[in-house]
Amino acid sequence: MAFTPDVIVTTDYSPATIALVAEAKGAGANLDEVALRLKHYMLRMNCPVGIIFTPQILRIYKDRFLGRTADSIELVGDFPTGELFNPRQSVAGEESPVESALFEWLDELAHTGQVRVSDLHLKSAINEHILPAVSGGRVSIAHPGTLEH
Question: Higher pLDDT residue, 146 or 78?
Fold first, then answer.
């Protein structure tokens, strides 16, 4: 089965491009396995930024566009998500609480441009890698059957 990320951020200019892809996972997920699939998707879609979001960790990847292999994509780092993760109860048929928290955070960031965290390393990484990708973009749940903004 082909990999589809949980959340994508697209640009509004023409032609629309995918500026960021994000995958939400539970605490026990194998992040290295998820990262491999995310990197291949980033390469296929020419996407510069990818993130994996769990209740504990925000992992950020950046494509340096040095080639068409996964080696071109570097791990920026792993950061604590405590200040970003605001779970809510999921309703049957809706996305998971982790996916909802990821979507809501990226959507707010895209609309406000405000990075509301006290961890300076996390704030710096968001400002440098994620904020430029989401600013003015459209945040969407990537799989069918769920709501998007």
Answer: 78
Rounded Cα distance, 24 and 100, in Å: 9
**Whether the Cβ atoms of residue 27 and residue 45 lie closer than 8 Å to each other:** no
Strand 49-53 versus strand 18-24 pairing type: parallel
Unique residue bearing structure tokens 């809706």: 94
For the segment 97-141, what is each residue's pLDDT rounded down to a tens digit?
899 899 999 999 999 999 999 999 999 999 999 999 999 899 998
Q: Give pTM, 2 decimals.
A: 0.88
**DSSP secondary structure code for residue 53 in this structure:** E
Sorted by where each begins, the domain ranges of the chain are 7-141
Residue 50: name the closest of 130, 110, 132, 149 by CA: 130
The H-assigned helical ranges of the chain are 31-45, 97-112, 120-125, 131-134
Beta bridge partners of 53: 24, 58
Q: How far apart are CA 114 and CA 122, in angstroms?
A: 13
